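Input.
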Amino acid sequence: MYTIKQAAARAGVTVPVLRAWERRYGIVEPNRTPSGYRLYDDVAIERVRTMRRLVDEGWQPSQAAMEVIEGGPAAVALEESAGPGAPAADGGGFDASDELVTSFVDAAARLDERAVGQVLDAMFARGSFEAVASSLLFPALVELGDAWAAGRVSVAGEHLASHAVLRRLGAALEATGHGRNGHGQVLVGLPPGSRHELGALAFAIAARRAGLPITYLGPDLPVHDWLGAASTARAAVIAVVTARDRTQAMRVVERLRDDRPGVVVALGGRGAREADGTLTLSSDLVSAVDQLAAAIDLG
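Output.
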């Protein structure tokens, strides 16, 4: 039997992802110690590993979970291809101090666009989008910002690396399909003046992969455009990246509350603060998607 940390490492996911898949999709039912700690056996770990591999192949998490629970042909084929005694996935590779983070910043400092792309390729080969974004990509971007502030990376290097990530995330969003037209969309965007969109874009990708009808509106969206888009929307997620974004974000919140009272309004991002009548999303990517899904009626 394994603790949740050990099970997540052996299955190749992060602990928050394992918790979310257990809670939301019911793919495993761990035993509990008298103290309430979760314990997972080899069968449970294999089910999580199989779901991870299906998600990595492009399955929506809800569909992948159903395939695993029902023992569908795709899940069976993956389990058979792994074979008995297959080596555990390297969950320990998801760490903010990973050498890939350092390599990403070093490549940016050298203005080496090819090397930046190679590092991103290596990152996204390490697991599901959600796990990589949370445990490798976001820490790499934080380190990039710190290196720029310290003068170790030039403005040009920071722009080169950020735009490489933006292109990669744009392609990932396209790969998830298209959002719902007309009524019921979930809008994701940034308030007026805010242009740091990588976190919002990553959230849009994860939410769409989880089956939410995401319409991504992008950065620097004027208040009147938020109101226009929200006329047929079910929810609006406003990304607040820095403290300077809060004033403009609250202008959007207030107008949405006044003019679109039926729309669920959520704030997310490291600059977000709790506000009356809004949902404040977790800093964890998977947990934030789960929060939003629970707050809206998808029926």
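The chain has a mean pLDDT of 84.
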